[in-house]
Amino acid sequence: MTKRRIMLKVAYDGTAYCGYQIQPNGLSIEEVLNNTLSDFLKEEIKVIGASRTDAGVHSMGNVVVFDTLSKIPGEKFSFAINRFLPEDIVIRESKEVSEDFHPRKNKSFKLYRYRILNDTFNIPMYRNYSYHFYRKLDIENMKKAAGYLIGSHDFTSFCAVNTPVVDKVRNILEIDIKKENNFIDIYVKGEGFLYNMVRIIAGTLIEVGCGHYDALKVKNILEACDRNEAGPTAPARGLTLMEIKYR
Amino acid sequence: MTKRRIMLKVAYDGTAYCGYQIQPNGLSIEEVLNNTLSDFLKEEIKVIGASRTDAGVHSMGNVVVFDTLSKIPGEKFSFAINRFLPEDIVIRESKEVSEDFHPRKNKSFKLYRYRILNDTFNIPMYRNYSYHFYRKLDIENMKKAAGYLIGSHDFTSFCAVNTPVVDKVRNILEIDIKKENNFIDIYVKGEGFLYNMVRIIAGTLIEVGCGHYDALKVKNILEACDRNEAGPTAPARGLTLMEIKYR
Hints:
Radius of gyration of chain A: 19 Å
Subunit structure (chains A, B): Homodimer.
Order of helices and strands of chain A: EHEEHEEEHEEEHHE
Binding site for substrate (chains A, B): 112
EC number (chains A, B): 5.4.99.12
CATH superfamily of the largest domain in chain A: Pseudouridine synthase I, catalytic domain, C-terminal subdomain
Helix content of chain A: 10-25%
Number of helices of chain A: 5
Shape of chain A: globular
Oligomer: homodimer
Strand content of chain A: 25-35%
Structural class of chain A: alpha+beta
Distance between the termini of chain A: 30 Å
CATH topology of the largest domain in chain A: Alpha-Beta Plaits
Largest sheet of chain A: 10 strands, mixed
GO molecular function (chains A, B): RNA binding; tRNA pseudouridine(38-40) synthase activity
Enzyme class (chains A, B): isomerase
Largest interface: A-B, 23 and 23 residues
């Protein structure tokens, strides 16, 4: 019997999880998917995920694949599996893909959103889905600073220390900063990201927005190739993986 | 010593509460406010609230008042009290008001929002803050139906049965239905509401939107003065008290 490869687009509220990837202590998205799919399909299923989001980070469409002997049509999996998943994980799309499709190896771009609630007081309904920052942010300066990050650069300054990756050159295609009511959303689109990269970019742009750094400093931070030069890592709860698109 | 009356605008995520009002079984917003204020001010505080929202219903600005001997400036209470409140309750404004100001007796209008996520699948981050309804809704028909509800009417058909209130005439000032991405927001503004009124209006407009009722039926439902004629009570999680404005 030949196995088919099924792709899922998985949305999740990361609040209750230790992240996407299986960890010895704590429940991960990957573990819930493996267990739910294995129970449902009566086969041992091991999903392969595109993005290993951190604890507390959310997703509107992380991409995972798995191989199965099941004959269920690809697009029916979402309906079938959602009935058995906890309510903070939802399959928003499913389809059959070619057996050599690999969520991390196939060329793609990812779109992340970092959401800041910029107001005197927090809003309870958004407390797990945005970072409450009460000092007023100047988004024009943030946009100017973001401009220096576009393109292909060595992002060592924007990568968590002790990351085993050697090549820290990454290509940022777009950074878009939008304000709606009291929310400031930083959208970052790229082909690949280093560990904590979007959260360090957000933390650094917040330093610019509140006047701690001038916009030009971001250019210097980038050139320094030193994590200590950049701003803090903004909290996980503000980050959502919005979309992964394959070429 | 004379007491001063302080007004608070209280935002809360109603998910974990049995509602605004103190209940024998379960934790209420009112109880948390009384306990937190009493502990902080070292006086016995009993708040008076404007709206007794149900279990699971949210608020962006319910209005409460309390009397205190404290000399803290009115506008400082929000900062002081927020440090002691759980993260799902936030005071977004505080000020001193005249001692005869009463949140329920003073003339006001209230604005509610009923949020529907109208998409095939739910979005985990919105699961507690919207009602997921997967069948496609025709918002033009919903708007037409809503038109019949504007103005002063006997809303018996849109009131939970066994409500002890005798006079069921209420005045709806405005119903606005907005679609943004996959969300349909029903905004209802009125001077006062009956028990479950906004949720029954939402449940009825959803019946219109998905084609179970035609728009004109809402006029007949209103005239029937019979709760059995209207649609179901839409789930609490979709409802948020957005604002209370005093004349």
